[in-house]
Amino acid sequence: MADALIAITVLWGFVFIYAVMATMDFGAGFWSMIYINHEKTKATNVANRYLSPTWEVTNTFIVALVVAVYSLFPTAAYTLGTILLVPGSAILLLLALRSAFLVFSNIATEYKKPLTYISGIAGIIIPGLLISVLPITHGEFVDYTNGTANLNLVRLFTSPNVYTFIGFAVSSTLFLSSLLLADYSKASKEMEAYKVYLRNGKILGPVTLLMAFLIMLTLANEAEWLYERMMEDFALLLLSVGFFLIVGIGLYGSSPFQKGVKGMPRLSVIAVVIQYLIASYVYGKAHLPYIIYPNVTIQAAFTDPNSFRAVFITYIVGFAILFPGFFYFWSLFMNDKRYLRQKG
Amino acid sequence: MDDLVIARSLFGTTMAFHIIFATIGVGLPLMILVAELLYQKTKDLDYVVMAKRWTKTFAILLGVGIPTGTIAGVQLSLLWPGFMEVVGRVMPLPFQIEIYAFFVEALFMSIYVYAAERIKPWMRIVSLVLVALGALASAVLITNVHAFQGTPAGFRYENGEFLDIDPWAAFFNPSFLVTAGHVALSAYVVGAFAVGSVAAFKMMKNERGSRVYLFHQKALLISLVVGGAFAFFTALNGHESAQYLHEYQPEKLAAAEGLFETQSHAPLAIGGFTDRETQEVKWAIEIPWALSFLSGNSFDTVVVGLNDFPEEFWPPLYIHTLFNVMVGIGSLLILIPILVLIWKKGLKKKHYPKPVLWTLVATGPLAVIALECGWIFACTGRQPWVIYRILSTAESATTATNLGTLFILFIIVYAILGTAVVFVLLYFFRKNTEMDDIKRAEKKGKPLYGSNS
After folding, report:
1. Residue B182 CA to chain centroid, in angstroms?
2. What single DSSP character describes residue A336?
3. What is the b/e burial string over B26-60, where b = at least 16 CB atoms within 10 angstroms of the residue's CB?
């Protein structure tokens, strides 16, 4: 039991890290498309400056996530693989177009606009499809015939709950990326772009919170078991909303240390990550022990103990080896004034 | 087509498309590294320009290689859930460790490209070495899963259950080193000849002795030396691979050689087509006793023929042709560089005649054809098994039906990506000619790597 809990925590960690990085990644791609004709604000340049070196690293996390599922919970991987064939393939197709055209748009400068449109639009659909995996694991869209699982696409796409999840994913993508890019453009001293992203954050924050409420509202109807378990941690959900208010302080307030600049985007970014961390903890805890409700539990799907031990050791060794690399990467692209404040 | 055939075709198409980019993605970093090191040694700026142009090519190819690799990784679970369930349980380590290799490659690739002008020269070399090592490690590790499929180890299989699982024993399965070595070495062959093809083509298009001609001549020389050497190593390793088949998957070797009767002093059939009815290889050149010698280093070696196995477990017989094409091209790729280097260095000829250049242009596409034949041989030769004598391909496939639409959609997307990547490469290098980059390199203090258009 303890091992399975550790394993699901590792998996949840990967989901969370990928979710945060992917929203920033896909969002940055989308903003880079939206502001492509507003050359003066440099909003597109800032988005690209963030995106160019990071998209490959972000993409690796989705592979890490899939590998973690089948190496930690092979039985769950079997069922997930079967029912996610259609949504999974749709994600893969869009992801292929998105990544390739993102690279191409930076190389074939004359065709930058059409290429950016393809990658930007493909990119904003992906989070909506990715998050649909969550309601699918709630179980009500999976039919079992003769022991094999099947996804009922009609029921899936007529469920209000699924649409609130999709809406939440898209607005979160835009919200989190706005906050990050606000911070990034402030560090880059691109004040025009900073104002644009700060404003977007102010608009999208309430929209995202509304979407979160709508998820809970429809969840009470469609997956009551999950709703009730989540409400058991009502205090934590309130705390999460509390951090959302801190995000608001970061957006509207002025820094006591810096005169003349409105907003503290760094505070907002940190607060929003904590907000999502708490909320996803409550969701994940309520979801346990089910990976797919009600047939696949973490205990039943857990891998061989020997394999788990071996994999867990590689996590520790891998993290130890990679950590300096991530730190060096961060210092070169997130924290180096020569990179941030370049022209163009 | 039934669903199993469509599932296999879909995954096969994904792999056939992906490996072109993946293989060049392993091979090119080595070429870039060689160019960077040659620059440190000679201080000839041409090598810096080469490194820059190859890096750009590498970055563009990654734009297709990374998403198709993501597709391959995820499609494994979507199309072969039964297989991945077993892999997850018994053989999770290669995939897991490969993730770290990916991260190393992705992190340092970005550092090498986007921080080129901000880091010290030795750090650039370190970054590049890490990119090359990351790429190599991912190739070796993913091939390890393929090796495991042929020579499964690290568990006891009883009544459909996997017992006494030892993931490290599975990791170090018998054919790991020899199979992974084959893929790694041949990737350097493909990378080198891909470069050589372009260089030879450009030499034809430019005036003899011109600046651009000489630039490409240097590139061609690197690719001939690297490509020829690795083609030789690949052949040595290939010989060992065949001996492994003899030991571990005899029906695969029998089908590759079109051998039906078990015998010592077995002949080697080169070319021709295997005929199931008459049980012979038609129109082949037969070298007496050679197969026995190649399989076990002695003419007395008994090579097992297909008739010793039930026909339902025979691999498809066309793999004989795939095997021949792979070996044939591999041999040519050892021979061509030797002859060209003798012509150039030995006979001290100044120029390459047109037919020679055309032959050199052909080496890149030939290397890719050999690569494709080798992979299709390796994977269809294992049929009907996905894990040799443990799990059949049919058992491991998804239970979902109507895969046809997905198959068509993926083909369309691959066609779009394939066309787009060619256009982008042509567009970029037409806008940034060799002379543009050479001039940029000669002006000190101007960023070369960041330069675009």
Report:
1. 9
2. -
3. bbbbbbbbbbbebbeeeeebbbbbbbbbbbbbbbb
Q: Quote the tokens at residue B398.
A: 């998804």
Kindly report the length of chain B: 453
B167 contact residues in A (CB cutoff 8 A): 304, 306-307, 310-311
Chain B nearest-CA distance from A206, in A, is 34
Binary contact (B162, A328; C-beta < 8 A) = no
Task: Tell me how far CA of residue A101 lies from CA of A23, A119, A188, B65, B406, in angstroms.
Answer: 18, 5, 26, 12, 21
Nearest CA to CA, how far is A303 from chain B (Å)? 5
Are B103 and A148 a contacting pair at CB < 8 A?
no
From the list B211, B401, B231, B249, the residue with the least C-alpha distance to B331 is B231
User: Taking a contact as any Cβ pair under 8 Å apart, which residues of chain A between 16 and 75 contact chain B?
Assistant: 52-54, 56-57, 59-60, 62-64, 66-67, 69-75
C-beta pairs of B284-289 under 8 Å, 24+ apart in sequence: B284/B258, B289/B265
Cβ–Cβ < 8 Å for B195, B120: no
Q: The complex's ipTM?
A: 0.89
| A271-286 pLDDT per residue, tens | 999 999 999 999 999 9
Count of structural domains, chain B: 1
Q: pLDDT category, B449, cuts 50, 70, 90?
A: low
All residues at 6 or more sequence positions from B191 whose CB lies less than 8 Å from its CB, including other chains: B23, B24, B26, B27, B28, B29, B30, B31
* Beta carbons of B64 and A101 less than 8 Å apart: no
Chain A residues with CB-CB distance to B67 below 8 A: 59, 92, 95-96, 98-100
Asked if the C-beta of A150 comes within 8 angstroms of chain B's C-beta atoms, the answer is yes
Domain extent at residue B387: 3-442
Task: Give the model confidence (pLDDT) of A15-46 as tens digits.
Answer: 999 999 999 999 999 999 999 888 777 888 88
Q: Is residue B449 part of a domain?
A: no
CB B193 within 8 A of CB B230: no
How far is B199 from B215, CA to CA, in rounded Å?
9
Are A100 and B64 a contacting pair at CB < 8 A?
A: yes
CB contact under 8 A, A82 and B74: no
Q: Which of A212, A100, A332, A78 is nearest to B68 (CA)?
A: A100
Tens of pLDDT, residues A77-87: 888 988 999 99
Q: Give the one of B66, B115, B427 whose C-beta lies nearest to A56's C-beta.
A: B66
pTM, entire model: 0.91
- Cα–Cα distance for residue pair B371/B374, rounded to 1 Å: 5
Asked if residue B328 is part of any domain, the answer here is yes
Does B450 map to a domain?
no
DSSP string for residues in B37-65:
HHHHHH--HHHHHHHHHHHHHHHHHHHHH
Q: What are phi and psi of A104, to 5 degrees?
A: -60, -35
* pLDDT of the residue at A243: 94
pLDDT at res. A214: 94
- pLDDT over threshold 70, residue B445: no
Q: Given the structure tokens 């052949």, which residue do they identify? A: B235
Establish if B153 belongs to a structural domain: yes
CB pairs under 8 A between A and B: 226
